Amino acid sequence: MQVTELLLVHLRRARDQVDRDYAQPLELDALAASAGVSKYHFLRCFAATYGKTPARYLAERRVERAQDLLRATNLTVTEICLLVGYTSLGSFSSKFRQLVGVSPSAYQASFAATGAPHIPGCYVLMHGLSDRRAGSATSEKPPQAARA
After folding, report:
1. DSSP string covering 49-99, please?
2. Rounded mean pLDDT of the chain?
């Protein structure tokens, strides 16, 4: 299947949305709408372009983020499951094992003894919440005194 350049731009936009909003519930209809095509055409074109369906791509993004959190934080597997967008621990564990080859608990344990010190989970959770506060963004403009 040949994907046009114009459609490729829209497919990238949808893929970027998955990368950005992986922890949110994402629906095929919404992704297809962001690409400006029907969901069936979107599904075929996405798979032809990226070699995997949007659902598989989303699952891989979520598991990659979970791997980062399991290696670097002291959060529980359940907390990480919810942070990356899964609502069922069983579904998360099953998909994690399918993609990584071990359970999330075993993966976390393998890094616990040999890895760098963990980032406290409370810091991770507070930082995630601080991103949503109004006015917390750093201004890119220099202060008035610095311009003179």
Report:
1. HHSS-HHHHHHHHHHHHHHHHHHHB---HHHHHHHTT-S-HHHHHHHHHHH
2. 82
Helix (H) or strand (E) holding 9: helix 5-20
Q: For residues 23 and 84, is the Cβ–Cβ distance under 8 A?
A: yes
Mean pLDDT value across residues 128-132? 42
Residue 126, SS3?
A: helix
Global pTM? 0.75
At 146, list the tokens. 């610095």
Q: Categorize the per-residue pLDDT at 6 as very low, low, confident or very high, splitting at 50, 70 and 90.
A: confident
Is the pLDDT at 138 greater than 60, yes or no?
A: no
Exposure letters 39-76 (e unless 16+ CB within 10 A, then b) = beebbebbeeeeeeebeebbbebbbebbbebbeebbbe
Residue 30: count of CB within 10 angstroms of its CB? 14
DSSP 119: B
CA 86-94-40 angle, 5° bins: 65
Phi, psi (deg, nearest 5) at residue 39 = -65, -30
Amino acid residing at 63: V
